């Protein structure tokens, strides 16, 4: 799924020239919402002439190119944004959309890397996580495990047990819980040590 970063205009009225710059961007966004992608592309190109440094315009134009079936142009634009954009949301969105294009082209390894990069920038992105899992499953189907592994279901079961699915938040929560338990245990041991004068032998 593609993401369009729409710009909200809540700034006070500025000079006429500044308004003209935003006018084409607004037009492009309206056309995009109405699925009139060719008109959106024209409006974004005009907006880009007025403001060549605008990453938001470039991002929306790249989305439009993808909707028009211009996959290679879209891919090139997303790659450039992913590598150069300073805005974290645009950078993450560019990696995500690059992953989408690559998935459509069945370039699974590259799409997996793109989704991972999107998640590094935005770990809460559910869509990126779901698409990453889909791409990993497709890759697994494409490259099934070796025959030796199929013969030994116990090894496969052990591997599954060793790699439980856990979100970054769950991992962080478990880590904090373990640290808390360790802290409590150390405090208890310190109390017992001080009560007994510290002469007890360690039993571990």
Describe this structure in words.
There is one protein chain. With 204 residues, the protein is mainly α. It has ten helices and no strands.
Strand residue percentage: under 5%
Low-confidence stretches: 6-16, 196-204
Number of strands: 0
* General shape: flat
Number of helices: 10
Q: Summarize the main sheet.
A: none
How far apart the termini lie comes to 54 Å
Q: Which helices and strands appear, and what pairs or packs with what?
A:
Elements lengths: L15 H18 L3 H14 L4 H13 L3 H14 L3 H17 L3 H14 L4 H17 L4 H5 L1 H10 L5 H29 L8
Helix pairs in contact: 1-2, 2-3, 3-4, 3-5, 4-5, 5-6, 6-7
List keywords for this structure.
204 residues, mainly alpha, 10 helices, 74% helix, 0% strand, disordered C terminus
Task: Tell me briefly what this model is.
The chain has 204 residues and is an all-alpha fold. It has helices at 16-33, 37-50, 55-67, 71-84, 88-104, 108-121, 126-142, 147-151, 153-162, 168-196. Helix 3 (55-67) runs antiparallel to helix 4.
């Amino acid at each position: 799924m593609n993401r369009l970063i729409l710009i909200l205009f809540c700034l006070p009225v500025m000079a006429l020239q500044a308004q003209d710059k935003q006018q084409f961007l607004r037009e492009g966004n309206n056309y995009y919402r109405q699925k009139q992608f060719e008109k959106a592309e024209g409006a974004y190109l005009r907006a880009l002439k007025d403001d060549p440094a605008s990453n938001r315009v470039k991002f929306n134009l790249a989305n439009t190119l993808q909707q028009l079936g211009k996959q290679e142009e879209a891919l090139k634009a997303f790659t450039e944004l992913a590598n150069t954009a300073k805005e974290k949301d645009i950078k993450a969105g560019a990696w995500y959309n690059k992953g989408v294009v690559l998935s459509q082209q069945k370039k699974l390894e590259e799409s997996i890397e793109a989704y991972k990069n999107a998640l590094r920038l935005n770990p809460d992105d559910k869509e990126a996580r779901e698409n990453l899992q889909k791409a990993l499953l497709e890759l697994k189907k494409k490259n099934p495990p070796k025959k030796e592994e199929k013969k030994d279901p116990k090894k496969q079961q052990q591997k599954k047990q060793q790699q439980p699915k856990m979100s970054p938040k769950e991992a962080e929560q478990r880590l904090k819980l373990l640290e808390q338990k360790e802290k409590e245990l150390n405090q208890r041991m310190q109390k017992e040590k001080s009560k007994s004068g510290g002469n007890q032998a360690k039993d571990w």
